[in-house]
Queue: 3 jobs
Job 1
Amino acid sequence: MHYEGNPIRPPSEAGSIILQVATGCPHNRCAFCGAYRGLSWRTKPDETIEADLEFASRYCQRQDRIFLADGDCLALPFPFLADLMARIREKLPRVRRISLYGSGRSMAGKSGRELAELKRLGLNRVYVGLESGDEELLAKVSKGCTAESMIEGAVRLREAGLFVSATVLTGLAGREGSERHARLTGRALSRMRPHQAAFLTLMLVPGTPMHRDATGGRFVLPGPEEMLAELGEMIKNIDPQARMQVHANHASNYLPLAGRLPRDREAILAAIEAARSGATPLKPEHLRAL
Ligand code: SF4
């Protein structure tokens, strides 16, 4: 496979074929993100995509899932995506799940009809980086879209029959904004109703504005126990009737968690409290990763 940079994928795509159809991220300005710094946003040459599909058809015969990298591939033009879905079905008929990243802007850029057509052609799942339900915080970290746009977009994806996974970043508001970040994010998830909420823990990446703020004393990263308290508050602020899978199994997390709301709400909160009290060991700092 031809990869440029280091394509990233959500934890749920660990066993998937990673087909890099574009490089970088059309936004590439989030203050906490160093994933695609130095990489420009552009689609890969058609012959490269074709060669990778050919390679996957020969050597990835046991994989039945495919993830389209890099960031925000839902922003690619509808005709490009529709053609790509058709080619994937032709070359990789055993693929049962096609996933990609989406943003508030790219979700708004596709009509309901286009989303439904992409679903019909094979797209199953969209990962949306909500990060927080706090609009002021999203503006402060230059997220490039509002929580409201992501909530609206997720509702439209669901209406088109697509599976929605929302990613949340604990620690993003620092120590000072933690309570507000937790409260507003729980409320946003209640309205967004993703099928899956994935919680990651902020790690400061050298070279990013947020890392510079931390080294300059303008941002204080919460400690492990505070990160867990924040996660617990987010869960508590999700509507008790809301149904969604909860995952905190990313390499950045201090405590791996998985469950289903509302069924496992109390068990998840108890696991968080056990970790905060020291009864459950946390992942050592040197084993955390992005
Ligand atoms: S967090 Fe997502 S949208 Fe923001 S710069 Fe990174 S890849 Fe792009």
Job 2
Amino acid sequence: MEECPSCAIEVAHKPEVCPYCGYEFPRQSSSRTLMAWVMAILLAWPLFEVIKLIF
Ligand SMILES: [Zn+2]
């Protein structure tokens, strides 16, 4: 069960929009997950380079 953060009504399976108050649920899009991975790799890359230089 998901709870609408706007009206606190419980809804089965997270809908796109709350059927009671019209609150738009934030989408867990795959592109956002991909962006998070790209950011993580970009942040970790200099660390890998340093490790390669040391060893
Ligand atoms: Zn709602």
Job 3
Amino acid sequence: MALDYQPKIVGFLCNWCSYAGADMAGTSRLTYPPNIRIIRVPCSGRVDATLVTKCFQQGADAVLVAGCHPGECHYSEGNYHARRRFTVLRELLSFLGIEKDRLRLEWVSAAEGKKFSQLVSEFSAEIAHLGPRKDNGKAAGGSL
Ligand code: FES
């Protein structure tokens, strides 16, 4: 595998916690790999199978979903829905021929800029180690 391989990661961050955590990382001048494309969503519970499979269809190497810690969702139970959905989505990805580890769910609060920075660095390294998708985007109905 080429050493310059940079995975394309889509990050769905909940507006109230994780997006603010990413912002905190930025204002604290913490660095993380630039290969994550951040999409702000109202709540982690908003991220459904359509959004995730669309990312893979469009050529993403991995998807990160980050939301408020359990018990802190601004919509009460959105992150619990996200957690339940996450388990099913990983199985769906496996069915589509995409490694489950390419989808990750994490809790990041507005004060956890350092955690966000470390999470993106770690996830990016893991996906780089996995390499490009073996299905070349075909399993999810798209192309790279
Ligand atoms: S508002 Fe952040 S996970 Fe629901």
